[in-house]
Specification:
The structure is a homodimer.
Chain A: H1 30-40, H2 45-52, H3 56-63, H4 71-79, H5 85-90, E1 100-101, E2 107-110, E3 116-118, E4 129-135, E5 151-158, E6 160-165, E7 168-173, E8 177-181, E9 186-189, E10 196-202
Antiparallel strand pairs in A: 1-8, 2-3, 4-10, 5-8, 5-10, 6-7, 6-9
Helix pairs in contact in A: 2-3, 2-4
Chain B binds a DNA duplex through helix 3.
Amino acid sequence: MAGDFRRAHRSAPVADGMEKPEGGEASPDIGTRLRELRKMHGLSQRELAKRAGVTNGTISLIEQNRISPSIGSLKKVLDGFPMSIADFLTLDLKPRSRVFYEAKELREIAGGDVSFRLVGRDTRGRAIQMMHERYTPGADTGDEMLSHAGEECGIVISGVLELTVGGEVRRLVAGDAYYFDSRLPHRFRNPGTIDCVIVSACTPPSF
Amino acid sequence: MAGDFRRAHRSAPVADGMEKPEGGEASPDIGTRLRELRKMHGLSQRELAKRAGVTNGTISLIEQNRISPSIGSLKKVLDGFPMSIADFLTLDLKPRSRVFYEAKELREIAGGDVSFRLVGRDTRGRAIQMMHERYTPGADTGDEMLSHAGEECGIVISGVLELTVGGEVRRLVAGDAYYFDSRLPHRFRNPGTIDCVIVSACTPPSF
DNA sequence: CGGAAGCGTTTAGTATTCTAGACAAATGGC
DNA sequence: GCCATTTGTCTAGAATACTAAACGCTTCCG
């Protein structure tokens, strides 16, 4: 009988009513999603709480799935990144198929006098726009961690590039490249003593 | 810190923290969305509440934006349709310009022996293109075997249809149907002595 | 070794959501 | 008309989310 069941005492996971998306969606729970996203942005619970206008305790409880936040609260929390609830729920945390490519992995498209070397193994379903960028020593895009819909990639031409994507940091040198979902927080920095030149590409619907 | 601000008394709209989606998304509030979606499904508050496992009062309060439902509650409510939260938030509620079309309103696309009458005036933004087709005796789409990406299907309403798909020929009579990949070469012909009428659909729209 | 600062967690108390039930208005037989 | 049903709304109380403040832990300096 369903009679008088009692909710578990405090301290028990609530996780209730969220666990069977019916479809084989297999997406992580809200708490785990939030925690991973927060760490990708390199924020502590308190930092995020301050930005969002909630208390750190709330962040903690949500991340543990001890409470099911209200739409309003979740919106406030996500505004700290910022990110919409829909993007939050549909963002793909796991696959991250491939982010970094070594120089030798770039595929040569055109040969001879002109050399076009393709970033990524498969361009299908990728609509990209390229740019040429130069970073002076110490230059930094800041830890603002801009996030816009789309994808972006690039190749380091000369110098050294320190690239942070979703909490993962990597030093790239001439010939190395990157490719990631622009919604993941990212940061470019030139940690070297000479200019860093890269060719990058991104996809807003700008062309 | 925001010191001691007080939430509005009961009975005042809460609508808090949800009103600036930052992007020019201009999406309706949660309550209005839910109400419209519910009515689109032809459900009363109580019916939906019963399906969702919540009370009708909750539905009412949410639709009036008097409360900001928890993720768990909203999920339960949407399960009554069913629909995911992400889909719910991104759903386009803009007035579908037209829903119903009278027979005379179907736009004639082809003339002569073959008549194609399109459901809806504009296929842009629609995933499916449906047509009411009529073939006079002997009418034939020709053996050019056009092929376009997508899929198409249909049901024979009256008369006889000789359908050729990828080299396979078949005679279909009223009630019979077909479904094939549009990339396969195909041909329609009326081998009978009376008109052949069919209703077809294909995706994506090719005109 | 302090001890100050930062971290995530937990707790007591308050604010909010949610339920159960009642209410008035609208609808549909008969 | 009149009763029965259905509708959306509202209210008191139970259940839950959220805040403010504390706790234990680690790290980093002097």
